[in-house]
Design goal:
The complex is a heterodimer of chains A (113) and B (111).
Chain A (H helix, E strand, L loop, with lengths): L3 E4 L2 E4 L5 E7 L5 E7 L5 E9 L2 E4 L6 E3 L9 E3 L8 E8 L8 E2 L3 E5 L1
Chain B lengths: L3 E4 L2 E5 L4 E7 L6 E7 L6 E7 L4 E4 L2 E6 L4 E6 L8 E9 L3 E4 L3 E6 L1
Parallel strand pairs in B: 2-11
Antiparallel strand pairs in B: 1-3, 3-8, 4-5, 4-9, 6-7, 7-8, 9-10, 9-11
Classes of the chains: A mainly beta (113), B mainly beta (111).
Chain lengths: 113, 111
């Protein structure tokens, strides 16, 4: 099993550009989530999903969209990138519907100029 | 939402000594409390977790204690080794589907 995979590893954007961060898991997990990690602030939940077709907002959802068309994939879209979105983004998945052990992907380091 | 505070932000210990990290949470309905370890440049990985119906849990050199009344939980690492050097994050669940993380503790084990 590959576990949780994320692409790209690194990305540089200009202010106002849009892009999609990809996340996939091969563990048949229903629960998937996106976090951003900033120095001194831990991990903050952006959006999560408890199954295909079901998504909801986390702690810091503004400026981000998600969709869940399959169990395996959970892409995160930045609509109009801003310097404040410079961060490391982690995707995670978990068994069950409620939050439980989270298996994190390797992360995407995003810089917005 | 849930507010999780974590102390200390940095911790330096001599190899073989114990390390203790403490977290407090605000939502009395929180029922799941995991701890994650993140090595430099790597992804966070679960090291131990506890649910609200349990007061203490141990796994070899690592233990977690939970005080629901005081709304705090702690991570204890005994006989620390150089490979324990990392950033440790506590977290608390809220609304069943969300995790709120503490800001992290950087642990350095001195040889």
């Amino acid at each position: 099993n590959a576990g949780v995979t994320q692409t790209p590893k690194f990305q540089v954007l200009k202010t106002g550009q849009s892009m999609t961060l990809q996340c996939a898991q091969d563990m048949n997990h229903e629960y998937m989530s996106w976090y951003r990690q900033d120095p001194g602030m831990g991990l903050r939940l952006i959006h999560y999903s408890v199954g295909a077709g079901i998504t909801d907002q986390g702690e810091v959802p503004n400026g981000y969209n998600v969709s869940r068309s399959t169990t395996e994939d959970f892409p995160l879209r930045l609509l109009s990138a801003a310097p404040s979105q410079t961060s490391v983004y982690f995707c995670a998945s978990g068994k069950g519907l409620a939050v439980d052990t989270q298996y994190f992907g390797p992360g995407t380091r995003l810089t917005v100029l | 939402g849930e507010n999780v505070e974590q102390h200390p932000s940095t911790l330096s210990v001599q190899e073989g000594d114990s390390a203790v990290i403490k977290c407090t949470y605000s939502d009395s309905a929180s029922n799941y409390f995991p701890w994650y370890k993140q090595e430099l440049g790597k992804r966070p990985q679960l090291i131990i977790d506890i649910r609200s119906n349990v007061g203490e849990k141990k796994d070899q050199r690592i233990a977690v204690t939970l005080n629901k009344t005081a709304k705090h939980f702690s991570l204890h690492i005994t006989e620390t080794q150089p490979e324990d050097s990392a950033v440790y994050f506590c977290a608390a669940s809220y609304n069943d589907y969300k995790l709120s993380f503490g800001a992290g503790t950087t642990v350095t084990v001195r040889a």
